[in-house]
Design a protein that fits this description.
There is one protein chain. The chain is α/β, with parallel strands linked by helices. It has a single domain, classed as Ribonuclease Z/Hydroxyacylglutathione hydrolase-like (Metallo-beta-lactamase, Chain A), CATH 3.60.15.10. Helix content is about 30%, strand content about 25%. It contains 9 helices and 14 strands. The strands form 2 sheets. A 7-stranded mixed beta sheet has the order 6-5-4-3-2-1-14. Strand 10, helix 5 and strand 11 form a beta-alpha-beta unit. It is globular. The structure holds fe (ii) ion. The site of fe (ii) ion has 6 residues, from helix 2.
């Protein structure tokens, strides 16, 4: 029996990524995403051979799930004792031919980033998979997980990030909200549908802290601490980085409210957040 519930926010071995390992008092693990193949050794180390009661995949982008997909392809995930894999990805076949979107090329590139690679190895976890529905809850030892948001049809300008699972982890002492890579539009839907569920002690900053949900969402969460999956350059990014300077192009793509990390950090100062866990400083150990 462990004294505490512990959450590890794994530092990046690859350029930027997201991976968390939670260890319950009964010594079971809950894994969130995992990063890229290069990140898997460190993820494996933190799992430490424990049973993985839940492996939650937030969305199908390579900085989140390509490590998981790589492990399945390599040996069927034999290095991991996985109970259930939770996810809800957009339906590729239904969407790939869609033309009534802001930017067809971008939309298809997004769908093609990880969904075909995942589909190619899916049979290896099929008996263990559970497609998450919004409103579902699971309990693992002293931890409860409430799934607050899943993919919504019609969010096409930032399709994969806006398909991120949003879920709240509740322990006897703390609540932690995971926002995945949710963007401004997905954040609007989340706010409209579920603002009454958002209040949490700790928040995983959406989309690594930039180009993410609005301050209205964070104001409902009113966190005391923030977890940033950010290398140094991203944590210290200006309000309008170079790649977001072509506002006309962004408007055409339906991606208007896209700002660098500096804006989000300013919001957190306004909300009075005092504690920041940032992966640039190494793997963070958070007692829940
Ligand atoms: Fe990401």
């Amino acid at each position: 029996m462990n004294e505490n519930t512990v959450l590890y926010q794994i530092t990046e071995t690859s350029a930027y990524m997201m991976a968390f390992v939670l260890v319950t008092k009964n010594d079971n693990a809950i894994v969130i995403d995992g990063g890229r193949p290069e990140d898997m050794p460190l993820v494996k180390e933190k799992i430490g051979g424990r049973h993985i009661s839940a492996w939650i995949l937030t969305h199908a982008h390579n900085d989140h799930i390509s490590g998981f997909v790589f492990e399945l392809g390599r040996n069927g995930g034999a290095d991991f004792d996985i109970g259930t894999v939770y996810y809800n990805f957009p339906p590729y076949d239904e969407l790939i031919g869609k033309t009534d979107v802001e930017d067809t090329d971008y939309f298809r590139t997004e769908l093609n980033e990880m969904l075909p690679a995942f589909a190619a190895v899916r049979d290896r976890i099929a008996p263990k998979e559970h497609i998450v529905r919004q409103g579902e809850s699971i309990e693992i030892d002293e931890v409860r997980i409430d799934f607050i948001y899943t993919w919504h049809d019609g969010l096409t300008s930032n399709p994969m990030n806006d398909s991120s699972l949003v879920f709240k982890v509740t322990t006897p002492n703390k609540t932690v909200l995971f926002l995945g890579d949710l963007g401004p539009d997905g954040g609007d839907v989340l706010f409209r549908e579920s603002r009454h569920l958002l209040k949490s002690d700790i928040v995983q900053m959406a989309h690594h802290g930039h180009m993410n949900v609005g301050i209205d969402v964070y104001a409902e969460i009113m966190p005391e601490a923030c977890m940033w999956c950010c290398p140094d350059w991203l944590y210290n990014e200006p309000e309008v980085p170079k790649y977001l300077s072509d506002t006309e192009k962004l408007r055409r793509m339906g991606r208007i409210r896209m700002y660098g990390t500096a804006v989000t950090r300013k919001w957190m100062d306004i909300l009075g957040v005092k504690k920041h866990y940032v992966t640039k400083d190494g793997t963070q150990t958070i007692i829940l």
